[in-house]
Amino acid sequence: MRNERLTERLYVALDFDFMDEALRMVDQLGDTLRSYKVGMQLFYKTGPVILERLHAEGCKVFLDLKFHDIPNTVAGAAKSATSLGVSMMNVHAAGGMEMMKRAKEASVAAAQATGAEPPLVIAVTQLTSTDQQTMNNQIGIPGTVEAAVIRYAKLAQAAGLDGVVASGHELPAIREACGEEFVTVIPGIRPKWAEANDQKRILTPADAMRAGAHRLVIGRPITHAADPRDAARRILEEMGEVLS
Ligand SMILES: O=C(O)c1cc(=O)[nH]c(=O)n1[C@@H]1O[C@H](COP(=O)(O)O)[C@@H](O)[C@H]1O
């Protein structure tokens, strides 16, 4: 996976209200980037048609709906999402072993039924907007964020999932606990020139690549930039410098 082209290792988060805005961004970015993340904000407005449009443009799609429900319901959701041809989807690790296992199994079965490549199913660990104080005092999980993330990552791996979404801060510990092949998808990425916004556990693109990230997810530093294409190019350059 680390041999993938650089442009396939950066997913742009299309957090927009309307399909037109999202497609305008894809058009603006052109062939600079071809991998996109569609999350709740856009998908709940447009439904699957946004995925059809992105696939028709030859783009890869990470469907980020963060499933978290009883195992049977999540298995059904994973089956439906797989039928939409996405290349990656996520569930909350906090849903537990059976939920994650059923999601992966349902996804593989749905892909096999049509002869399609099964999407990666990955687990959200602790959100990058959560700091230790929030996790301990509000959510009620004791200990360090890193310990909580590692526990979730090991659970996801035991459930047969392909990887996790986590902040770059926990990357080295995840690699040590789960091995090099376990996919790490890293949001909360902020180049030095961008604002943190609501993200708490952030890393620069270069630091995330240095720490061994498989894929980065970046939204506002690109989509809210005065020149999104230039912002994307600068980020790809920063990632590339680490790899060269
Ligand atoms: O699952 C995710 O993609 C995700 C997990 C997480 O812990 N933190 C996180 O920021 N994300 C998503 O990654 C994207 C980050 O966007 P920006 O903060 O604009 O770069 C958003 O679409 C979030 O929903």
From TrEMBL:
Protein origin, superkingdom: Bacteria
EC number: 4.1.1.23
One annotated GO biological process: 'de novo' pyrimidine nucleobase biosynthetic process
GO MF annotations in UniProt: orotidine-5'-phosphate decarboxylase activity
Pathway terms, separated by semicolons: Pyrimidine metabolism; UMP biosynthesis via de novo pathway; UMP from orotate: step 2/2
Matching Gene3D superfamilies: Aldolase class I (3.20.20.70)
Catalytic reaction(s) noted: orotidine 5'-phosphate + H(+) = UMP + CO2
Active site: D64 (for ompdecase activity), K66 (proton donor), K66 (for ompdecase activity), D69 (for ompdecase activity)
Keyword Lyase in record: yes
Family: Belongs to the OMP decarboxylase family. Type 1 subfamily.
Quaternary structure and interacting proteins, as annotated: Homodimer.
HAMAP family in UniProt: OMPdecase_type1_B
Annotated protein name in UniProt: Orotidine 5'-phosphate decarboxylase
